[in-house]
Amino acid sequence: MKGILFALMGGAFITLQGVANSRISQSVGTWQAATITQFTGFITAFLILVLIRDGNLQRFKQVKPIYLSGGAFAAVVIFSNVKAIQQIGVTLTISALLIAQLCLTFIIDRYGWFGMAKQKLALPQYLGIGMMIAGVIILGV
Q1: How far apart are CA 139 and CA 141, in angstroms?
Q2: What was the pLDDT predicted at 116?
Q3: Structural domain boundaries of the chain?
Q4: What confidence score (pLDDT) does residue 88 get?
């Protein structure tokens, strides 16, 4: 149950972040908005880390360098979301974002990329993606 709540919270906050970034970028620029967002995110995460003291900083050495590039991915996410929201609106942007996420997660699950266990995908999963794509097409019409 906690996982579902965290997923719902993450979904809500990615939408709020996209809208806020779009508004920031109208004043200062898109990459500037991404920079501000990344910086405030770092400060927030660092403060929470200091307050909660969760995890073990010594274990950073065990993380593969490629996985440390997640922040760079976030910069592209922010830029892309800002531009999409400005051009097609919040609803269509988040809908397309979800479809892109699901399609890539299907590939990751299918082939076991990034050390993930391979998952069998069946007709219901493919139908679900198809229905979501149809829904986005209907939203965009």
Answers
A1: 6
A2: 85
A3: 1-140
A4: 92
